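Why do we care about 3D structure at all? Because function follows from shape, and shape follows, mostly, from sequence. That is the central idea of this module. The next example makes it concrete: a single protein chain, its amino acid sequence, and then its structure expressed as tokens.
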Amino acid sequence: MRISHTMLLAALALCGHAARADGQADLKTALERCQAQTPLKALLETKTWRRAGEGKDAEETQGMASVLIDDSARGMQLSYGREILARMDVEAHAQAKNPNAKTPTLMAAREFAPNDLRPMISAASELQRVLDKAVWKSEKADTYNGKPVRLLTYETSIDTLSDRDRKYVKDFEGVLHVWVGADGVPLASRLTQNASGRAFIVISFEAKNEDQSVYSLVGDRLITIRKESKNKASGAGERDEYKVTKTLQLQS
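And the structure:
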């Protein structure tokens, strides 16, 4: 069977389009390329908000804390300002006298554990970890900050939960959206997870989590310059909402 010149050009064009449209492969390549450990100095500011209970009995707490991160060949070092340390001391003393005392600065500072900080300064490896357990769903054209991008959609499974938590969950839904540029480098992502089930036979619960991240490149290192996490849980007549916003500001 002979193929006309016009049909051949059309087929080649379609193949080229298919190659360019493989955002999943482009993202994987970009994440491998963006795991360099370029020295980094940045100020991480964390704001937390929590609402526990319902109606007039609900209690709200807001906190803010910051830490200076220096990540280099020597490792990751954290520096706390004197003002932050002073506030933490005051709240610790207050809590020692009254277990019900509010400790907003201490609440925010709990977000400075190494496993919470690494995703901010080493975003490529963190995103790859999530993708390793995700199932590819689709790709489509979209816009981000007014520019054309590709929106990649994945499904996350209940396997992301521990065996202990999984046995209580009856229904689980997880979706990961990743916006990537023409070079495959991720610009932003949103992970949503909804779970419901029953614990101890009589206690029904629902939980909703959402993480939104914005990325940027420092040399060949992908970092998260902003991350907002929202968590809602209800069960046994109780309700709890928690929101954490982290912003990373580069320092000279």
